[in-house]
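Thread: "does anyone have the structure for this chain?"

Original post by V.I.:
We have the sequence but no experimental structure in hand. Need at least a predicted one for the grant figures.
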Amino acid sequence: MNYHFCAKTDPGRARDNNEDSVVYDEGSLTAVLADGMGGYNAGEIASGMATAFIKSELSRWLTEAGSGVKAKEVRRAMEICVDNANRSIFNSANSNANYAGMGTTLVVGVFREDKLVLGHIGDSRCYRLRSGLLEQITKDHSLLQEQMDAGLITPEQAATSSIKNLVTRALGVDESVLLEVNEHQVQVGDLYLMCSDGLSDMIDDDAISKIVIPELALEQKATHLIDQANENGGRDNISVLLVEVQEAPEKRGLIARWLGK
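Reply from O.Q.:
Generated one for you, tokens below.
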């Protein structure tokens, strides 16, 4: 399989600064997205620390481990990297008054052959488009999600709720945090979309589908998603990270190359 990555971030229309951070490493097939929170520029610091630390440490480990590493080993390495990033952000928040209370959501994915090891904290999301069907494959760690799970409100009521952005889990807020990790089977033709809530709060799933389903370059899809979120209000920073899965070209044998086949 061949994996193609594209990432874009935008401050939106309501904010001057951008507290989102999004990075990827094509060599280790690692993708990381974070949406920071906190006063001053603390949210920007937290998200930047999270993405830089996790990309650096996890990519290095994956490179050293080689192609034969198993999914459960990737999972453990991801948990360790996220735990170390959490402690780093937490310690910074407690040693600098300007950073007090800072934290960040997180989505981190590692693609290995035909598997995706996917971890997340908070309400930043990952969607999968497969055979024309868009599905959210992460579950928000938020008060709103807990209320829906308990049957207290409907998805329709949730769309206009005033507590949309209250997360129940964030990186860097406490000394320890639980990373939710799941493994997913990857198929040729899949498209994965990681995003901050600046996208998912501004565009519903049906509208996202209409943008990502057409046969367009990843760059165009990312741009259209951000443009639509801004057209709908752009009330928060908007970040998207797209990963497209294509079939690897077959290696032709020597005789086939001689015959031009």
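V.I.: this helps a lot. The two ends are 21 Å apart (CA to CA).
O.Q.: and The first strand starts at residue 2 and ends at 10.
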